[in-house]
Amino acid sequence: MYYAIRETLESCETLPASPYVAVMNVAEWQAKKDTFDLGIDLEMSLSKIYGTKAEVNYDSLTGTFSIPDRDNLEGDDHTFAFALDEKGIVFIDNYGYADLVIKRIQRTKRWRSPSMERFLYDFLEQIVSRDLMLLEKYERNLDNLEDKISENEDPSYLHTVNKIRGNVRDLRIHYAQMIDFTQELEENENGFFVDENIRYFHMFKNRVERLYNIAGYLRDYTEQLGDVYHLQLEAKQNRIMTVLTVVSTIFMPLTLITGWFGMNFRYMPELESPWAYPIVIAICIVIIVVSLIYCKKKKILLDMQKTARRRFFVCDWRFVIRALPPTREVKIMLCLRCSVASNKGVRKLTWSYQSGSFLPCFFQSRNSAVAVKITSPEEFSAVSRES
Questions:
Q1: What are φ and ψ of residue 285, in 5° steps?
Q2: 121 Cβ contact list (under 8 Å, min separation 6)
Q3: In the predicted model, is pLDDT for residue 211 greater than 60?
Q4: Which of 301, 286, 287 is closest to 253 using CA atoms?
Q5: Which of 30, 78, 84, 22 is nearest to 52 (CA)?
Q6: Which of 255 and 310 is assigned the larger pLDDT?
Q7: Count of CB atoms within 10 A of residue 139's CB?
């Protein structure tokens, strides 16, 4: 299938004048590759494509795409290859994904200044068009899992978190490959692209870098949820050990008394006394009462009751810096995510940084359990390390 790049993509039966787009399978490419005069002998097996990359040749640019399936990230990637020069681009695809994207562009895009660079921008943009919504969906799922993990220690929640972590990791690797791919286009080593249109590649690279950063944040978030889950398990184990310790402490003297009077020596006057049994019962009651009073005075019982309500903080300190022109103010935002067992929340603080000045801010958590006051970037670094 051939397309001419005009105001829209126009379908053609034969190879049109440049700029053009061609889509064919491997067999068609082997039969028609001399028609395109790319000056290369591109031998390939689409089953051996493992990543997205571009390679600069003497008079052409070749490479491969490996696109994760957004509907099933754990499944196989969409793989195809390409070759381009100043006249047009040829996609070699046995599975129809490239043609599907091109037809979507044909239906939805209309250009004032049609060019190869604009087509490549729209083609790459179609690949990541749903990714921001997908990442937002993962974030909402993680927020819900955070609530559920805080309420109980169901292992299935941790399995779901690990699954999301794996999907986000695959997307992050894909974004890194796309950034490298776009940089190859941006360098324009062979001079195939018009200089004023290189901005399209720069725009796309910036978009993918933002997605890469969001995926990195979600990866850190999944690690935090794993920490919260393990903290919950540790808290549960600590409660069990506290109960066992208190019970053992109370019954240890009673065990001693039982063993003492169970020795069955012949001359033990207490065994013949009618008051021996009530006295031993009274001593045991006194020991239990004294032990409970001691535990309460030392706040052992109180701590045991509060352990179930204890709040665990897993804090993620990070700067989110929005780059603006030097003449404008640069906003620095600190996001503190508190993964809390019984009182969760997200705190966002914003400082203004301009001409070397750093305006102080103060943060206090909802339950007043954590308070952070930061007056300078140096103090922020110190607080981050201490936390």
A1: -65, -40
A2: 200, 201, 203, 204
A3: yes
A4: 287
A5: 78
A6: 255
A7: 16
Cα–Cα distance measured from residue 257 to residue 266, given in angstroms and rounded to the nearest whole number: 17
Domain coordinates in residue numbering, the chain: 1-115, 233-309, 315-386
Q: Tokens 């020069």 sit at which residue?
A: 85
How far is 211 from 207, CA to CA, in rounded Å? 6
- Work out the average pLDDT over 45-49: 71
What CA–CA distance (Å, rounded) separates 326 from 379? 25
pLDDT tens for each residue of 49-80? 888 999 888 888 888 999 999 988 888 899 99
* Residues linked to residue 285 through DSSP beta bridges, in sequence order: none
Q: Which position has the higher pLDDT, 95 or 273?
A: 95
Per CATH, the architecture of 1-115 is what? Answer: 2-Layer Sandwich (3.30)
CA distance 36 to 340: 61
Please answer whether residues 340 and 333 qualify as being in contact, where contact means their C-beta atoms are separated by less than 8 angstroms.
Answer: no
User: What's the distance, CA 300 to chain centroid?
Assistant: 40
> What CA–CA distances, in Å, run from 140 to 143, 147, 164, 198, 378?
5, 11, 11, 36, 33
Query: How is domain 233-309 classified at the CATH fold level?
Result: Methane Monooxygenase Hydroxylase; Chain G, domain 1 (1.20.58)
List, for residues 250-305, the tens digit of each pLDDT value.
Answer: 888 888 888 887 777 777 777 777 888 888 889 888 888 888 888 778 777 665 55
For residues 318-350, one letter each, b for 16 or more C-beta atoms within 10 angstroms of the residue's C-beta and e for the rest, the string is eeeeeeeeeeeeeebebbbbbbbbeebeebeee
